[in-house]
Input
Amino acid sequence: MGLVLARPARLLGVEPFFMEFIAGIEETLAGRGLSVLLHVVPSHDAEIATYGRWATHGLVDAVVVVNLAEGDRRPGVLRDLRLPYLVVGTWAADPETPAVPTDDVGPVREAFGRLTGLGHRRIARVTGPGALLHTRARTRAYVASCRAAGIEPVLVEGDYSAEAGAVLTAQLLSRPGRPTAIMYDNDVMALAGLGLAKDLGVSVPDQLSLIAWDDSAMCQLASPALSVMRGDVHDYGVSVALSVLELIDGVPVTPRWSPAVRFVPRGTTAPPPA
Output
């Protein structure tokens, strides 16, 4: 199974998500004597070039496409190359494409509801890359939740890195009427935001509440431990691998969704300061 990650290689060393995801895939494929051919590239153009090489030399039986973006060319290229493929996420451009879709709306609503339930009215969001379809879906859910609650949306775009988490948190905390809560699109940016708040003398959770999307050992070991939106990433990889095996076997791909993402309260969420 081929998997290309178009992202800075340095992020793989600090972001646990893809390592857990790949572990679930590998463990499932191993029972059939199959494995993952992983390639890290800087761009979608480089990813598409990789697909061409794989197709020419018959190096993979199927491809998994992750991080779908607006106007994504990759599914069309794989179709033209006649490489079987599965998309991770919702691909509205072709609903018949084999996929393991995700719910990017419900968890945002839940996280937002948890914060407003505590009394927060100034809630900001640090997003992942804005071109990604799941980022856009989460943003739409956040903006809709803000409007329903009569709250002004505050959005800043990051790239999942610790550097972005720190810089963007500093920007948010320097605003007039700074937020009393921040929602982050991954754990690495949230952990960096927690460290930055400490450096600025902003007490978490007494003065600022934080919620991370995705859980990890780093979130649990942080001080205070991070409240998170947690899904079973390993099981997500298992579901993708089972669908890939059906794709390779030429049988109908069973509809599967990514595991549900639920709020886990820890030490970074509390009512806002009076």
About this structure: The chain has two domains: 2-102+231-260, 106-230. Residues 106-230 form a domain with the Rossmann fold fold (CATH 3.40.50.2300). The mean pLDDT is 94.
